[in-house]
Amino acid sequence: MNGNEKRLWKLLGDWNISTLTMATASSAGMAVEVAKILGYPVVMKLLSPDITHKSDVGGVILDLGSDKEVNDAYHGMVTSVKQHLPKARIEGVVLQKMAEPGLEVIIGAKLDPQFGHVIMFGLGGIFVEICRDVSFRVTPVDREMAREMILEIKGSPIIEGARGMEPADLEAIIDVITILSSMLEKNPDITEIDINPLIVYSRGSVAVDARMLVR
Q: Closest by alpha carbon to 74, among 109, 28, 40, 105?
């Protein structure tokens, strides 16, 4: 990982935002050995200081369940990235244990020149890409404000357990929003940060992927 990515995941850990165990590999053979240690299935993500949106260039592969799948995925990923961005530096891959399925949400923030940090919340996956069903608050955000921004999106019934679905842990989402608000106050050089997805369960949540830009 580059220095920025290391700082990001250390920050999440230091601020008690739950994350998945991860490890890096610089070759296909090393990736296979790492995957065996983590336990299948695993997720493979490109490790490159030049690419922020890894999924756009084939840099994220989910649910790899065997040594052969990891080996093939490594070579396929490197080939795909070189085709899309031949000048990008490829340092290897990051492997993570595949998270249990749950409700995917996105929590992020951007530094506005007038208002300061503005936190955004929405449902993850296709919901945020297609529906643009999101809410915003200017930091600092307390628990009451966080609850309001969660419940004001149109998709909030999904969080509360619509149509017989198991309700997601609303308090766990509030925890992450308020923690992120406090983290930004202590780290004003962060200009942009996204946790996408944060997978929320009936109890607790886990940050599966994240990115950060700093001044």
A: 28
